[in-house]
Amino acid sequence: MVQDSYQMLDIRQLLANHATVSQNKYGFFLCRKGEADILLNNRSFHIEAGMLCLYTPYTFIHIVRHSDDIEGYLMEGELDAIQPALSNIPAAERFAIRSHPCVLLDKMQYLRVEEDVEMLNRRTALAKQSNQPSSIRLLHLLVQNLLQAFCLEVLEIYFNCAPVEELPQSREERVFNHFLMSAFRNCVKERSVTFYAKEQHLSPNYLSSIIKAQSGRTAIQWIETFTILQAQHSLRLTKLSIKEIAYKLHFPDQSVFGRYFKKCCGVSPSEYRNIGSK
């Protein structure tokens, strides 16, 4: 089996999870249909059909709202797999991606990206289906080279498009977005609404009312979401024991962490890890 150096994601999963973070990965979303307002770190953008959105490692991603028909290609690549293509890009241009993540493509640019995605997916599927060692090795190399070519093509298109300007934010939106970023960064140690209210010089009740009005979810629910995202990442991608993960996330002990995780996810940490390894 060829080890994937990139992953095509289901946008419906991202919508269901409320928010995610790109961890040690680069990613892109090519919108094919519909529209959405998305939050990348603490900046908000409106995207619609024909727009390309790039994001860099450790970008916080939240879909604020979306149309029912939203559809597109959502792909993430491991940093080590993408790095060869980025090595020839000046640092200033790489930083531009973080500053201006979204661009509008013309019809020909859109078709180029779409064709490249389909080619990459077809060759990856072929590599996974092969059972001949020599074919697997060569197809793996082919996929790696196609991935590099794809990255360079996307970057060439990106740097020849006008950036999409970020959306203006009301005071309430700024409070909400600041809370999201802070909760994501600090939930490992801080899981009380009071901490995040003090950070913005607000009362806990007022902050809670803004969060509920902006998102339909409570502040505590958001804090739980980010805590669980951190826990799931450690369970899936590290060899830390459950006791060590509980300590890392500042739970009093493993049993308290286990109850917290099961309440939010419906399964125990060990069950979640076992499911992910299959």
**Total helical elements:** 12
Query: How is the largest sheet built, in terms of strand order?
Result: 1-8-3-6-9
Give the SSE string: EHEEEEEEEHHEHHHHHHHHH
Helix content: 55-70%
Q: Hey, roughly how much beta strand do the residues contain?
A: 15-25%
Would you tell me the structural class of the helices and strands? alpha+beta
Give the secondary structure arrangement, pairings included:
Layout lengths: L5 E4 L1 H6 L2 E3 L3 E9 L1 E6 L2 E6 L2 E5 L4 E7 L4 E8 H8 L4 H9 L2 E3 L2 H23 L3 H26 L12 H16 L6 H7 L4 H12 L3 H19 L4 H7 L5 H12 L3 H9 L1
Antiparallel strand pairs: 1-8, 2-7, 3-6, 3-8, 4-5, 4-7, 6-9
Written account of the structure:
The chain has helices spanning 11-16, 79-86, 91-99, 107-129, 133-158, 171-186, 193-199, 204-215, 219-237, 242-248, 254-265, 269-277, and strands spanning 6-9, 19-21, 25-33, 35-40, 43-48, 51-55, 60-66, 71-78, 102-104. Helix 2 (79-86) crosses helix 5, helix 6 (171-186) packs across helix 8 and helix 9 (219-237) crosses helix 12 (269-277). With 278 residues, the protein is of the alpha+beta class. The strands form 2 sheets. A 5-stranded antiparallel β-sheet has the order 1-8-3-6-9. The protein is globular, with a radius of gyration of 20 Å. The longest helix has 26 residues, at 133-158. Helix content is 55%, strand content 18%. The two termini are 14 Å apart. The protein contains 12 helices and 9 strands.
